[in-house]
Amino acid sequence: MDFQKILEYRNANNPAAARLGIFVTDLGPGYARVTKTIGPEDLNPLNVPHGGVYFSMADTACGSAMASHGHMAVTMDAVYHFFRSANLGDTLTAEATEIKTGKTICVYEARITDQNGALLGFGTFTFYQLEQEIPF
After folding, report:
1. What is the CA radius of gyration of the chain?
2. How far apart are CA 112 and CA 38, in angstroms?
3. Strand order, beta sheet including 71-82
4. How far is CA 52 from the centre of its chain?
5. CA angle, residues 103, 16, 80, in degrees to nearest 5
6. What separation, in Å, do the N-terminal and C-terminal C-alpha atoms of the chain show?
7. pLDDT tens digits, residue range 93-117?
8. How far, in Å, CA of 117 to CA of 2, rounded?
């Protein structure tokens, strides 16, 4: 499997993640890392990042880890637990690891940390693997 080509495909073909400034930086078998720097456009009325930022990072990381197997997939279910907030200018990392791989149903976990390694939250994401291979 050419993980670099899958990583490049994911970054080039995910306009929603790109608009949010979320990019895949590392990809391996059942594993992915994405990063994002918190900007003013990410803040909610409490002046902390909107919960959707964390969820989108976790979903992108888990979806990328799922894609490491060479197939397209869709998120079936997701749960995200918020522990603490990041601040403006923080660089966040979401690391996804595989928990269970099946023929069609696969489960991943993502942990989001800040640049100091503080755990901000984690999520569990279930995917349905499509028969469609990643076209690269």
Report:
1. 14
2. 13
3. 23-28, 31-37, 91-101, 105-113, 119-133, 71-82
4. 12
5. 60
6. 11
7. 999 999 999 999 999 999 999 999 9
8. 29
